[in-house]
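Consider a concrete sample entry:
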Amino acid sequence: MNTYLKYKKSSFHNFIRSNRKYAPLFFFIAGFTWDSLTLGRIDRLYDIIVLCTYMTLLTVSIYFFNLVGNEKWENSFIKKYGDYLPLAIQFFLGGLSSAYVIYFSRSVSLSKTASFFIILIVLLFANEFFKKRVSNKYLQFSAYFFVNFTFLSFFLPVILKEMNTAIFLISGIISLISTIILVVLVYRTNPSARVEIVKWKMLSMILGIYVLINTFYYLKLIPPVPLALDKGVVAYNVEKYNNHYNVTYEVDEWYVFWRDHKIDFNRNSNKPVYVFTSIFAPTDLQKKVYHQWKWYNPEIGEWQNFDKIGFEITGGRDNGYRGYSFKNNVIDGEWKVEVITEENLVLGVVDFNIKTTNSVKKTKLVSREF
């Protein structure tokens, strides 16, 4: 009781009371920022412990938050510290979402998956557009199910050391069952929840998100985390020696920070074009990936598939598993090499424009060791 009275009189408590409108958003940003600074590898023990802790505490916080209005808990610690539970929910939501963004951002290209990130942002910031904000139970459980599903979709492959469609489907089923169990527990233990929650509406929202995520997966719009494309460049030459790769390529202007190589590839006639990639994979996870070469046919307005070159990767290397492919017979124009898995999920895209000439002056040519 003395501890509680100290909290009631503390400046922190008064600050939360007077800024309760913006405090949840602040804690969401705090969770996002903290993980951005501390998380690194998805298969690192520290990261695993932190993410499991966040998921567990988010579940507990949502459950306790929905008990605050129950008279049964009037004199319990749940009622006393109930003002802090919305902040905890926002913090753990921010922490989990930031972890997902961190692992996705390791990919060299997000062009195929930008829509998935838009959904992530909309779901997690939607509370600012709801009158009840975090107290809105539909928002709570929708956001919970989304982060639960996305968390399991990259956590299970790390633990099982295997990545395929079956693992993704299992992740979805586990998250769906666990979310429904949490909703049922809240519904049964809190009389007010029975008034606020319309069962068919809640179930429809959760199932809708479930179908949406699976649709994105089958449309190849979700990056295949925990795999990530660290580096991807189009090069004039690639040489391997003593487990090192020496890559020669032309760099772009300094202000083109989102791409290492120059997009206009000036090819000498009869010389091959190389594409070098470095792929991150968790320790002991084995997977076959492919370089799918594509050329844009301006006459029909479509991308045409050319060579598809595959190689095995084994996780564990901090700087990624390195590999390359090359093509001799190329046509001038727009090209891209999609780095894909066996399920045709896109890890990233290396795009470039080829122009063949007999005399080429490369002003920004560099050689780099990987």
Q: What stands out?
A: The chain has eleven helices and eleven strands.
